[in-house]
Amino acid sequence: MEPVLLSFKGDELEGKRMNFKKTAIALAVISSGVSPLVNAEHERLDDMLITSEVLRSGMTGVAPGLAGTNDTAILLKQVPGASVNSNGPLSGIAQYRGLFGDRVNVVTDGANYKPACANAMDAPLSHVPASMVETLTVYRGIAPVSSGLETLGGTVVSESRKSEFTMGSEVESHGKVSAGYNDVSDGKYGSILGTIANDSHRMHAGFSQEKGNDIEYDGGSNIPSQHDRDAATIGYGFQTGDHEFEFEYNHNDTGQTGTAALPMDIVYSRGGVITSGYKGAFQDFNIDASFFYQDTRHAMDNFTLRDVVGGKYRRSDNDSDGGGYKIAVDFASMGGDLKLGIDGDQANNSAKIIDPTGTLVIDNFKGAEKDRYGFFGEWKGHIAESTELELGARYNLIEMDSGDASINKLGGAATLRDRFNASDRSQTDHNIDLVAIIRESLSSTLDVELGFARKTRSPSYQERYLWLPLSATAGLADGNNYVGDIDLDPEVSYQVELGAKWHQGGTYFAPRVFYRHIDDYIQGTPSTDPLVIAVSTGGGDPTPLQFTNTDAKLYGFDADWGIELSDNWDLSGIVSYVRGKRRDTSDDLFRIAPLNGRVELAYEQAAWRLSSEVVAYAAQNNVSTTNSETKSSGYGLLNLRADYRPTAALTVGFGVENLFDKKYSEHVGGFNRAANNDIPVGERLVAAGRNLYATAAYEW
Question: Backbone phi, then psi, for 607, in 5-degree steps?
C-alpha cells in the first residue's frame, strides 16, 4: 500500500502524504483537529477528519467497531461528540452532540443525498460504501454557514475515491483493489477503483460488492441483520490553466437488507446521483460551483426477511428525486477572506403502502416537496496579530407542499384523509442563521476559541405531512405511531461553545464545552385528537404521538488527546458527553448517546502496526418517557488489531473486536421490531459479538 492520503482541515482542505511509520500518530489525531505536525511552530485546525481504508478494523478495514458492516456512518464513532443511530447494518443515521437525522447536514461529493425511504433506511451516508470513501470530515462544534443550507446539528462531509490530476502530460494509470472478511456475520466485501490521468484529464471507474448474514452474538443472532449492496462510480475531470471541470456518477444498489429496529426491511434501494462542478481562479476572486441530480427508488416489506406478526402483510414503495446547486465566490476583502454564495436544493418524496394479500392501498406521502433557497456571506480574518475572527450570515427561503393523500378504506382513516386533503398544505419559512467565532493564539502551543451561533431548521416532510398515524418517521425508531402538523414552526437554536487546543512535543489535548438552547424544538407529544387515537389504536398503538413545537436544551463536553510515548509507542483517546432535556417539561430527549470514550495504545515499527483499543460506554439513565424509552446498561469492549505491509503496494490487516464476546446493547441501537426467538419484540437489539476479521489492499 502506498502512503495513506490524509487531508487535514486548516484554512483550506490540503492533502499531505504520510509514510506508514507515522500512521499511529496520524490516526490518533485524525478526529481531533490537532495537527500531527506537533513540532511545527503553530498550526490552527478547525475541523476533524478520518480516512477510510487504513485497514485497521472489522469487515471493511475502515474504522474500529465496524462489526461486520461497510456502513460509512460507523466512521463517526471515532469523532468526539459523534455517534450513530444504527437501525440496520447499512442504515446508520449520523448523530452529533445529541442531534440526528435532518438536523445534521450531510454532504457527499458536493450533494445533499436524500433518503427515498420514509424511515431513512437509505440514510445519506449509506449511498457510498466506506471502502469507496476517501475522507469523512466533521466540522468540530459550530459549522460555518457556507457548509450547508440547514446546519443546526453540524455538518458532515464525505468525499468518495476518485482520480487525481498528475504533474505531467504523460498518461499514468493507478488503482486500488481491496477485500475483507469477518466471521461475526460471515461477511465479505471487495472493491476496485482504476484511474488514468495526466495534467489535463483524469478518469476513473470503480465497483464495490458486499454481502453478509445475520449478525451473531453470544447466545443468538439479530434477525434480520443480513445485508447485500453493490455500488459503482464513474467520473471524468478536465483542467486547463486555472480552470477545472468535473463530472461524476455514483450508483447504489442495495438488495435484501435487515432493519430490525424498523417495522419493515429493505427489499431494494437503487438509484444514482449525478454531480458536476467547476472551479476557477481569476485575478481578484475564485469561483467554486457544483450541481447534482438524484433519482432513487426503494421498496421495503415485513415478510421477506422476517415472520409476519398478526397476519398483517405490508409492503411500501418509495421514491425520491431532486437536485441542487451551490455557487460560491471567494475574494480578499477588508483585511480577510470574504465568501459570498447562493445554494439550494429541491426534493420530491412519495410513499405508498399496500397489503399484497388484500386490497389495502395508502398514499401516505404523495409528491411531498421541500425546496430550499439559500444566500450566505462569510468573512474570516485577523483583527490582531494573534486573534482571528469569523463572521457568517445566511438567509434560507424554505417552500414546502404536498399532493393529496389517499386510502381505500372507510371510517376514521378516510376522515383523516379528507381532513388533510382539505387543508392548505403550502408552507413558507424565512430562516436566518448567524455565526461569530473568535480564535486567540495564546502561545505557539495553545489556542482558545469562543463561538456563538443562531441556527435554524424547517420541519421535514414527515413532520409536516404525516396525516395518518404511522411509524414513518425518518428512522426515529421508538416504536410509536406519529402524525404530523402542517403548521409547525422552524426550530431556532442558540449555541455557545468554548474550546481549546494544546500541543507540546508529541502530546496534545483538545477539549470543548457547549450549550445549545432550542426554541420550537420538534418533538413527538401525546396526541389529544380522538380520531387520531382511535385510528392508531386500530393499528396497534393506543398512545400515538404528534409532532409538536416544544423547547429543548443540550449541553456537554467532548475532547480528544494523544501522547507520543516513544518513537514506537503512542497512546490516544476521545471522550464525549451530552445531555438533552426538554425545557417545557422535565423529560429528557430521546436516543441520546451516554457518556463514552475510547483509548488506544499503538506500537509501530518498520512494516508492522499493533494496537489495542478499549471502548467504554456508561449506563444511560436519562431517557425520554414521552418516547417510552428504557434505560440501558454500560459496557466495555477490548479490540486488538494488527496491520502488516510486506511490500510498498500491499497491506494486510487482521484482528479481533469485542475480544471477550461481551453481550451488550448500544443505547442508540434501536429496539427490536421483528419476530425473533432470541430477542423479544420491544427489547433492545443486541450488538455484535466477538468478531474476527481480515482485510487486504493492493495499490498500483
Answer: -95, 5
Predicted pLDDT of residue 141: 86
- Domain count for the chain, please give it: 1
Cα–Cα distance between 316 and 314 in angstroms, integer? Answer: 7
DSSP string over 564-610:
E-SSSEEEEEEEEEEEEEESSSSPBPSS---SEEEEEEEEEETTEEE
> Which residues lie below 8 Å from residue 408, measured CB to CB, with a gap of 6+?
359, 360, 361, 362
pTM: 0.91
Residue 224: cis peptide before it, omega within 30 degrees of 0: yes
Q: So what's the pLDDT on residue 295?
A: 96
User: Which candidate, 233, 235, 215, places its Cα nearest to that of 225?
Assistant: 215
Let me know: does 609 contact 23? Beta carbons within 8 Å: yes
Cell numbers linked to 590: 430521546
C-alpha cell at 325: 446547486
pLDDT at position 377: 98
Write down the pLDDT at residue 66. 36
Give the per-residue pLDDT at 310: 80
Tell me which residue range forms the domain holding 469.
4-699
The per-residue pLDDT for 13 is: 29
Q: Looking at residue 578, which CATH number applies to its domain?
A: 2.40.170.20
Q: Which residues are 632's β-sheet partners?
A: 620
Spatial separation of the C-alpha atoms in residues 286 and 329, rounded to whole Å: 6
Residues of the chain with pLDDT under 50: 1-69
